[in-house]
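Notes, Module 5: Reading structure tokens.

Key idea: the token line is not a picture. It is a compressed description, and you learn to read it the same way you learned to read a sequence, by spotting repeated patterns. We will look at two proteins. The first is printed below with its tokens.
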Amino acid sequence: MKHSHPAFEAVKPNIGSSFTSLKFFQNENIKSHVWHYHPEVELIFVCGGSGKRQIGSNISYFSDGDLVLMGSNLPHCGMTNENTNNEYEMVIQFKPDFLGEPIWELPEMHRIAHLLERSKAGIVFAENVKKTIGKKIGEMHESSSLERLVKFLEILDALASTQDYRILNAGKYYLQTQVEDNDRINLIFNYVKDHFKEQITLDEISELANMKVPSFCRYFKKITNKTFTQFVNEYRITHSLKLLAEKPMSITEVCFESGFNNFSYFNKTFKEYIQKSPSQYRKEFNYFME
């Protein structure tokens, strides 16, 4: 089987603009299944729908849309596909120095400069921020020239001012790796993404990475801040969250459909990650959505 390397994405600003603003309806953003990276910082707003976000070594589930900010060269998958059922997706991309390096030294820009530093780990914003900023992103996209730039800076300043966010990749290492590391780690991520419902052995994944098992284990832990088993379990649990929230399946079916072949191990792992049982999660999610 051929494994794809992460795509390097070349990003061009909109004509007459210093940054890129794109709007995709429903599942138009076809990069959703491909790991890619680019030097541009990326702000993504998904209006409605639910799915998995995969940013750096973090895999998590979102519902009722999403708002995330990702720093330069942080590998990620697109947010939407045909199963997301979102209304539309806004993608804003800009180079960290798109206004020139010296501008970040200005006192008025310090807050935004700190935001961009935090974004190297990936940031997801809370519900109230998502709704307010999502509306502003739509207005900005419809504006032109200087007005568009001013509105964009106001959006960045609002994001820099809120405390309502979560860092996606904890620890000092944000997968801001060398390109050859990106190639190797993304090969591993793509393999997990395509095979998480099957058993994946350390021998098999180490061979794929062209390493001995002990070296692979050390390498993976250093790059992602978690063991390979933790990473695969996190992927499977995130998939189970999507199934519990969206599909009328029994919890036993969810367990096996998510790649776990032992129901008690699934329950135990689910509680470790989510701090509640699968049935409790489903009950609370349905109550929240109603």
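Here is the second protein, with the sequence above and the tokens below, as before.
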Amino acid sequence: MCLAVPGKVLEIEERDGTRMASVDFGGVVKEVCLEYLPDLRIGEYAIVHVGFALQRLDEESARRTLDLFENLGLLEEEFGDPWEQAARTDTPTPEAGR
């Protein structure tokens, strides 16, 4: 499932001419491209989809959505470690053959 998830901007830097940010999604921090929201600032929230910040969001809405996603287990599903997820199932991982 693909989700647009709200996250809080922690740090901003320019990398190879592209504005990038470290964004916190309820405890999971990922790198996000800010090119669609060039005026987004540290401490603000944005809706992020496939690594791109798409829309600014107020803090209250972001927190409600993150709480809902956490309660439904969607943050783990969307951002969890694929090796950890594979270990919780009967599906062998590529490491199993080594």
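Summary for the second protein:
- The mean pLDDT is 79.
- The chain has one domain: 5-91.
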